[in-house]
Amino acid sequence: MSDKIKLNVIGDPIEHSKSPVVHGIVMDALGIDCEYTRVLVKKGGLEEYIENAKARGVRGFNLTMPHKTDIIPFLKEIDKDAKLFGAVNTVSIKDDGLYGYNTDARGLMLSLEQNDVSVEGRDIVILGAGGVVSTIALKFSDMGAGRIVILNRTPEKAEGICKKIRSFQQSGAAQGGTELVHGAIGDAANYASDCDLLVNATPLGMSGVGADHEDLSFIDCLNPSAAALDLIYNPPKTNFLAYAEKRGHKIINGLGMLIGQAILADEIYLEKKLDISGLFTKLTSGDYTI
Fold first, then answer.
1. Adjacency order of strands within the sheet including 90-94
2. b/e map of 55-87 (b: 16 or more CB within 10 Å)?
């Protein structure tokens, strides 16, 4: 029997996924023989995929759209973050059933930790209100952020995320105490002076998008000690980050989150603790291309 570990990432579409590259690099750095492949699974095809995966000896799989919620009924147990976000991105296949996890937000937290950026008690401003914002803002709240300001082109979407987080706080599902504010993205300068962490969670500046921030002058108003985080990792340095760096701010791109969630998933697959700090340093050293 081969010692090669078989892993998949499933979704529709799936050909764009960077997961095989990232997990391949992690496993290579660990000296583990791994076959990590993309598998196109259309909505409604989870049951058939799971049976095939078990038959092929697949140890686990990552999920992207449209399966992050649909997978839950097939799982024996899910972890705290998966319950909190109502979504799963990692599944471990064991003899007694399937176990689900969500490593997305913890991957971001690992990236921030590796860059010595704290969340607890901090003032965080998030630009954008897409799907990922709900996840990261909920995680920031659960980690004890002092205030979270969500700004969007359509403030109603930002307001909806704030309401969702408040309901989690009130139910006890997430830690309470974090102040939640919503507004228009054009008002960013009004919140910048108190900001400890400024997050670009919009697609503006991403390769292939063809659009960028029209005005970045709100960064001039930032608290001098604030860090700037862009969830985009292609290009490695967006105009948003370049502007912040020129102003003397610590900058972080989205590569660390991508690496972090992969390392956490691989810990689950391998059922052992990994040298996260060492792997982060190695994978962000420039010796690898993601």
1. 34-40, 5-11, 60-63, 90-94, 97-101, 77-78
2. eeebbbbbbbeebbebbeebbeebbebbebbeb
Active site residues: 68
What is the DSSP annotation of 47-114? HHHHHHHHHTT--EEEE-TT-TTTTGGG-SEE-HHHHHHT--SEEEEETTEEEEE--HHHHHHHHHHH
Contact 65, 43 (CB under 8 A): no
Fold classification of 106-253 is Rossmann fold (3.40.50)
- pTM of the predicted protein model: 0.88
> Cα–Cα distance between 91 and 135 in angstroms, integer?
18
Contacting residues for 74 by C-beta, under 8 A, at least 6 apart: 46, 47, 50, 98
Contact 29, 283 (CB under 8 A): yes
- The more confident residue out of 199 and 170 is 199
- The structural domains of the chain, with segments of one domain joined by +, span 5-102+256-283, 106-253
The tens digit of pLDDT for each residue in 166-180 reads: 999 998 887 888 999
Residue 9's beta-bridge partner residues?
A: 38, 62
Helix ranges restricted to H, the chain: 19-30, 46-55, 80-85, 104-114, 131-142, 155-171, 188-192, 239-246, 255-270, 276-283
Question: Which residue's entry shows tokens 């408040």?
Answer: 166
CATH architecture entry for 5-102+256-283: 3-Layer(aba) Sandwich (3.40)
